[in-house]
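INTERNAL AUDIT FORM
Audit reference: QA-55
Scope: verify that the stored structure record matches its stored sequence.
Auditor: D.O.
Record contents follow.
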Amino acid sequence: MRPAPAAPASPVASSSIDLTRLIDQGKVGGFQILLLAICGLCLIIDGFDVQAMGYVAPAIIKDWNITKASLGPVFGAGLFGMLVGSLVFGVLGDRFGRRPVLIIATFFFAACMLATTQVQTVQALLVLRFITGLGLGCIMPNAMALAGEFSPARSRVTWMMLVSCGFTVGAALGGFVSAALLSRFGWQAVFLVGGLVPLVIGTMMALWLPESLQYLVLKGDPQTRHQRLARWLGKLAPQLQVNAQTQFVVPEAPAHGMPVSALFTEGRAKVTLVLWVINFMNLIDLYFLSNWLPTLIRDAGYPTDTSVLVATALQVGGVIGTLTLGRLIDRLGFVRVLAVCFLIACATVALIGHVAAALPLLVAVVFVAGFCIVGGQPAVNALAATYYPTTLRATGIGWSLGVGRIGSVLGPVVGGQLIAMQWTGTALFSAAAVPALVSFGMVLALTLAASGPDAARFAARRPA
């Protein structure tokens, strides 16, 4: 006689659920993959829109019959807007939640990109790039925070790097799309694409993007917290039975006071300052190269389409670097990987000016520089995301990026001034190697700035 078939497993009743432990010990399922994919798509269009100005700059210079140096303030305005957006909206993400800030910002910068297609003067372009930057600036800190909060600790850096890779993918796609559109439809078409796509992504976010579970426990509205937690937990772990008596907990205490000042309390001051310096130096290089490389390559004697494609190698290298560095950091720790990364960056950036006449070698050197500088930036963001607790995570990432984006503003603007002073390409790229060398030194100083378990975590295998 055959035994009766086993009854299907019933949901597991739980009176108390530790959400952080649940995520850390569980597998990454379909719900988390959808969330990570939406965050990644948001960062793809973020990267596309941020880099768009650098790709269309040669076409605008020709179309408006203006000097190269006159676009320096335009580059700086967009990046200054991102700086303000990172500082202000990162804090709002820790106060009002990641979800609403991401959705509102996405629709906001979509409208700004569409408006940019209508500008006809440098002054109008400058103003719109600043306003667009406000929306763009809050995407990275909140998307990275949300991705980290839904990823298990054992692979958190890898998943955050994969999501943040979207920014670099978007920047690289911007090069290919710009090369295809510029000669046929003009520079306005690039901003049109950059405005229409985020409208679709924003709608997807409104429908399917959850709020951080840890955030809801610590700072969510008490009147709706339980209902919202039960809704999203039902998608994350449907095997759990949640009722009105279920208690949700996280191993953190709610933060009090001003979140920015908390970045300097409880032993966090030294690491916070070191993170700011690393961001500042790396973003000087990243945005100097991203904005001026197409123009400088064209000045070396190459056609506009070729110069754009060479500059795209920077972003392609960044994509490969992001995909590679995340796994390495999970295995070897932040310090080992980032120290080697920035040391190689110093050498390759200096080499760009020396190999400009040999196109294959130029592409290879630009690719490696992108691998280290563009690919290293998401690693620095992931470092901030793993260091700060939930209630400070978006603020910590946002302010680290915001201070760093002072460098992103200075890089293109100072670059424009040095170009106006007739600096040679060799001299420009040699000077640009210095910030990468400083980043290398700051990474080595990171374990000295940290104390106790943080120092071991930065250097150890598989950081939490």
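Auditor finding: record pair retrieved intact. Residues 33 and 134 are 28 Å apart (CA to CA).
Action required: none
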